[in-house]
Amino acid sequence: MSDKQYRLGLWLRDAHAMEQQAETMLKAQSSRLEHYPELRARIDQHVRETQSQISRVEECIKRVGTDSSALKDMAGSLTATMQGLGGMFAGDEVLKGSMASFAFENLEASGYLILAVAAEEAGDQQTAAVCREIMEEELAMASWIKDHLPDLTRAFLSREEADLTAKR
């Protein structure tokens, strides 16, 4: 195995752990959204996309001849669970969660761009294509959040002003 292939395998394991973390965070966020049905529906859709991404990354990991890191997956899941629990106490959870999701989706997208280039350099065009495909899914979610943040902010402020539950 070349150095490039070895590095690609390590980064794919990191991506797998990151997707496990994303799934946990998204599910926690969705479970607490009561008054923002459009956001909840989009998050639920992205949970399904994330589950598909996990499967596709697992296939890439197998193709390069390594396996996922159970320790990293567990650590990522624990971190996501703690982040999800922490958001429960924020008075403006829906907005802070959306901000965090926007940042995280862009982080994931940049990671998949790096993975795509690394896969190309390692001669693995199939993994490169998968990573570019996942990158586009992450960018689409980030774009959706960006496009909907103004309306989410207005809805939050309106609910808060009317003394309705606004945080979630």
TrEMBL record:
Pfam families with a match to the protein in the record: DUF892
Domain of life: Bacteria
Database matches in CDD domains: Ferritin_like (cd00657)
Protein name: Ferritin-like metal-binding protein YciE
Transmembrane segments: none
